[in-house]
Give the backbone structure.
Amino acid sequence: MITLDRSNVITLVSYARTQDNNGVWRDGVETTKDIFCQVDSVSASEFFSGGQHGLKPEYRFTVFFGDYNGEKIVIYNGVKYSVYRTYHPRTDDLELYVSKDVGDNKAKPTVAPVVVTDG
């Protein structure tokens, strides 16, 4: 049996629609959740395949399946990454494949934050 080293921590970022104290709904409110994971580099074939699709694959994070709820942003060592694919082997694990966006190296939220202006 293979034992995973889940001593690393990543932060999952999601953007939700929430209601404030005044009853006003706000889109794009950022929430975060820290979870334990195993960190691995992506394979050479994953790296080159991603590059052909405008991605810069960096890491594969193996997490407990129940900890992940479809978040598209991961923060690891202070750097934001985009989840571009997941893989669920027939175990309690889930693999998150992440990349930096080519060009600007900034992960993008799945829901744009709302900008409120006076007027």
In short: The chain has one domain: 8-101. The radius of gyration is 16 Å. The longest strand covers residues 25-41. Confidence is low (pLDDT under 50) at residues 102-119.
